[in-house]
Write a structure and sequence with these properties.
Helices cover about 30% and strands about 15% of the residues. It is an alpha/beta fold. The chain has 2 domains: about 375 residues, Alkaline Phosphatase, subunit A; about 90 residues, Arylsulfatase, C-terminal domain (2-Layer Sandwich). The strands form 2 sheets. Strands 1, 2, 3, 4, 5, 6, 7, 8 and 9 form a 9-stranded mixed beta sheet that branches. α8 runs parallel beside α9 and α14 runs antiparallel to α15. It is globular and about 65 Å long.
Length: about 500
């Protein structure tokens, strides 16, 4: 590939799925090996206090592309609706700036009901329309029978290998929501046929075939370590349940053993995904692309993995809402291996990609985005990024498990349908002591609630061409209440 002297940097947004922030080499689990993530850390800058704006797949991935929170769209901060059409995207802006754009792997812009009625290849026009020139989209490994079965390029591959029916049957045994009891066993397929190796081969093929004399933007999207927890051998056997740290807030010995099995399989899946990402990085290096490529690595959310005796994500606890966040930028003056403590949000990623590859202003490219570019922060040219961060889940007023959250470096406040929470994070990192009703904390609760009102009140409803699930009248009322709130940052 020939390069122009003035060519903009290539940009790779490298993601995995449901990877909690503290499960990596040198993290919470002794013996967990993530050489590819370690390699990225050595090359780049780690933002260790990054949060998902909505710890569930579809809203965060919507945020990554549009620069909007889920609550700013008709789909809302939940997984149950297709993304609405018409939202401008960062990929479209990069196309206007002369980039060739590609999406390989999981995007998740359609809900399960839509995917179960359509082969995903037939829906890829929507992904092209959102700014991707090349699309190789797959659903993942959740191929359970619902109102039909999700079909995509990966299921086509499984059928061609004669593995599809067995994979469907196996997947159904692994989900407790479907009555599954097979919570601890290796995949029935080997490394070659597992999902992330399948999409990883396509990423490598795309990189090796790329020959355009223009920069590229590639969203390389892996699916692991998202459930089902089915790492292939030899990755499944690398960790023994007895070696796993017990989950926080669980005292029943049988439940602890159950969660340790889950954690051992989760760690095997993390290592397998890391292995597949490593082969992709090797391909980039072999083509000499790393020196002019910005790589941003993140995950859409974490996983409770038994903390508080809870499954999966969607919770305001750090295990669910905090994610890995690494930026490798050749233009940074910070030494490789730098760790920055400033808070960052998922919504900052598209703003940063825009700043790296386009001259468009954020509000021109993605109107109403609350994102902030952290490009200068990770390049060493800015002293701080955010002093506090925001996250959300579900639509308030509908009951259930809906909540809104703000956190600083020290304090986390959660306004929830099921009751408010306040945590001192340095003293209580696994959030086991709710201080919201403690004597002496009321002024702090008031201040944190003020930050939450400030964030919710400042969110703008996108133009009338798209529908929001929250009315402008609501935002006006919340904004007016800011005047009665204490807006000072709590110590």
């Amino acid at each position: 590939m020939q390069k122009c002297a003035t060519r903009r940097p290539d940009i790779i947004f490298l993601t995995d799925d449901e990877h909690r922030w503290d499960f990596y080499g040198g993290g919470q689990v002794p013996g967990l090996q993530t050489p590819t993530i370690d390699r990225l850390k050595r090359r780049g800058v780690t933002l260790t206090n990054a949060v998902s704006n909505c710890p569930v797949c579809m809203p965060t991935r919507f945020t990554w592309l549009t620069g909007l929170y889920g609550s700013q769209s008709a789909a809302g901060p939940r997984n149950s609706k297709d993304w609405p059409h018409g939202h401008p995207t960062v990929a479209q802006s990069l196309q206007r700036a002369g980039y060739h754009t590609a999406l390989i792997g999981k995007l998740h812009s359609h809900c399960g009901e839509t995917v179960s009625r359509n082969h995903l290849k037939d829906l890829e026009k929507h992904t092209h329309d959102r700014g991707f020139d090349d699309v190789f989209e797959c659903s993942g490994r959740g191929i359970y029978p619902k109102k039909g079965r999700p079909e995509c390029r990966y299921t086509d591959y499984l059928k061609s290998k004669g593995l599809y029916d067995a994979m469907v049957a196996d997947a159904c045994t692994r989900d407790h929501r479907l009555g599954g009891t097979n919570m601890y066993s290796p995949s029935i397929v080997g490394v070659e046929d597992h999902f992330d190796n399948f999409v990883g081969r396509e990423m490598i093929r795309w990189i090796n075939d790329y020959s355009m004399d223009k920069p590229f933007f590639l969203h390389a999207s892996f699916f692991g370590p998202h459930f089902p927890l089915d790492p292939p051998e030899p990755f499944f056997s690398r960790h023994r349940p007895d070696d796993m740290p017990p989950p926080a807030g669980v005292e029943d010995p049988e439940r602890i053993k159950f969660w340790q099995k889950q954690r051992a399989a989760y760690c095997g899946l993390i290592e397998f995904t890391d292995y597949c990402m490593g082969k992709f990085l090797d391909a980039l290096e072999a083509r000499g692309l790393l020196e002019n490529t910005i790589i941003i690595f993140a995950s859409d959310h974490g996983d409770m993995m038994g903390d508080h005796n809870m499954f999966y994500k969607m919770k305001p606890y750090d295990a669910s809402v905090r994610t890995p966040f690494i930026v490798c930028d050749p233009a940074s003056v910070l030494p490789g291996g730098t760790v920055l403590q400033g808070l960052a949000e998922a919504v900052d990623i598209p703003a940063t990609i825009l700043a790296a590859g386009s001259d468009e202003h954020l509000q021109d490219a993605m109107p109403c985005s609350p994102g902030r570019s952290f490009l200068e922060y990770v390049r060493g040219g800015a002293g701080k990024h955010r002093e506090w961060a925001y996250a959300e889940q579900g639509n308030l007023g509908e009951g259930g498990s809906s909540w809104r959250m703000v956190r600083t470096a020290v304090w986390k406040y959660v306004f929830a349908e099921k009751g408010d929470m306040l945590f001192n994070l340095p003293l209580d990192p696994f959030e086991q002591r709710n201080l919201v009703d403690e004597p002496g904390q009321q002024e702090r609760v008031k201040a944190m609630r003020g930050l939450l009102i400030q964030r919710m009140g400042s969110l703008l409803v996108p133009p009338a061409t798209v529908t929001s699930n929250v009315s402008a009248k609501f935002y006006k009322g919340v904004a007016e209440s800011i005047l009665q709130a204490d807006q000072s940052l709590p110590d």
